[in-house]
Amino acid sequence: MCTSFLAFQTGNFGITGRSLDYDQPTQFLSSQFPSGTTFNSVLDNGVSWVSVYGIFTIDSVDGYNVPFEGINSAGLSISGNLANASYPQNNPGPTISSDDIVNYVLSQAGDVSEAAALLTSINVQSQWQYHYIVFDASGNSLVVEFDDEMAVCYNNESLVLTNNPNLNYQLENQNNYANIKNWFPGAVLPDSGDQFHGQGMLGLPGDWMSPSRYTRVTTMLEYSLPYVNGNNDAIYLTKRILDSASLIKGVDLGASATGLPIYTQVQIVKDILNSVVYWREYDSESWTIVNITW
């Protein structure tokens, strides 16, 4: 399970947040490549490309590094989230693995329109299924899902993506929470002495299913961004929203009472305007901070 989003204000800040939830302990590493780097598809099928932009990625390690999150020197960000996918096989572009997609897009695209052109032209061979959310330095958001062997692109004004169901379902599901607001008539206030306060956002879902995380993060962004003053505030907000969508060990054991805990193994924050990446694994109190030099 994954949750990805962008906190953005034109000319002020552009901060992405992302969590990755899984039931198998995973090793994470970062990678950086300058423009001019030649990449070869992990399919070993002769497909290669040369990077137009410098790229920085966070990778899971499974025999080799698999980038699932990253940023490039143009301020483009991409997150791959697990979701149902029926990948294209007859497009005019190259055939690559889903393990290549983050490197491929970051190395070639400077904005979401260029990313859309790339993602709608490729063919994909993979046992893993994903959809992707892409942000650029202008605050645009693109979601790409693969359905019936076609890439379908959406402008995503909510700036959020989780997992299944697809984005259209998530957007329609928001109508179920149209009456939620951050105040409540006759609310009990903290200074009243009455312990029953906190009615703002009454009815907001609190579980960790994909639609609930989507609704919770979308709503928190909508109501919290007006109170953000500058870049540091936006980074702090992004970390707190990530906490609200993150799982601790023990709250989800999957399909069995003896199952392995599904938990948030890593949180990632990217400052796409200033090229700074923060990331923290489950057992760490501190954030690794990388100030990228392109």
Verbal overview:
The structure is a single chain. By secondary structure, this protein is an alpha+beta fold. 19% of the residues lie in helices and 33% in strands. It has a 7-stranded antiparallel β-sheet, covered by helices on one side. Strands 14-1-2-15-16-17 form a 6-stranded antiparallel β-sheet, covered by helices on one side. The chain has a two-stranded antiparallel sheet with strand order 4-5. Strand 6 and strand 7 form a beta hairpin. Helix 1 runs antiparallel to helix 2 and helix 4 runs antiparallel to helix 5. The model has no long low-confidence stretch (mean pLDDT 94).
Topology:
Elements: E1 2-9, E2 13-22, E3 27-33, E4 38-40, E5 48-50, E6 55-61, E7 65-72, E8 77-82, E9 95-96, H1 98-108, H2 112-119, E10 123-124, E11 130-135, E12 141-147, E13 150-155, E14 160-161, H3 167-173, H4 210-224, H5 231-244, E15 263-271, E16 276-281, E17 288-291
Helix pairs in contact: 1-2, 4-5
List keywords for this structure.
5 helices
Give the helix tally: 5
Q: Reading side by side through the largest sheet, how are the strands ordered? A: 3-6-7-8-11-12-13
Instruction: Tell me the overall shape.
Output: globular
N-to-C SSE string, H for helix and E for strand = EEEEEEEEEHHEEEEEHHHEEE
Largest sheet: 7 strands, antiparallel
Distance between the termini: 31 Å
Low-confidence stretches: none
> How many strands appear in the DSSP assignment?
17
Radius of gyration: 19 Å
Overall helicity: 10-25%
